[in-house]
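Supplementary Text 2. Reproducibility record for the structural model of the 117-residue chain.

All settings were left at their defaults, and a single model was retained for analysis rather than an ensemble. We include the record here because the model underlies the residue-level annotations in Supplementary Table 4.
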Amino acid sequence: MNILIIINDAPYGTEKAYNALRMATTLLKEHENVNVNVFLLADSVTCALPNQKTANGYYNIERMLKVIISKGAKIKACGGCSEARGIDKLTLIDGVELSNMKEFAKWTVEADKVLTF
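Retained model, structure tokens:
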């Protein structure tokens, strides 16, 4: 089964990115026959920036992304959204790639389920 998870919000300030990545982690851990793709849109493209610093005891989106990447998830960040926020030339977390709406549409059509956060 192919599952597409779409994140729209910034990594911190709400718990949408956190909850989306918790779901991705659980899907990959509990279901070996599941492929997970995560597409970062709007302010969520900043989830892909490296060297995030969070206080002890708080979730860290960078670490969560690295975990799901290590388990086989594919992560793409919207190139247009990244450009609009001035981060399209910055280094992203290893395993995250800039993408476009054409690929986002392809992932959507190929998905058996789409979850939005």
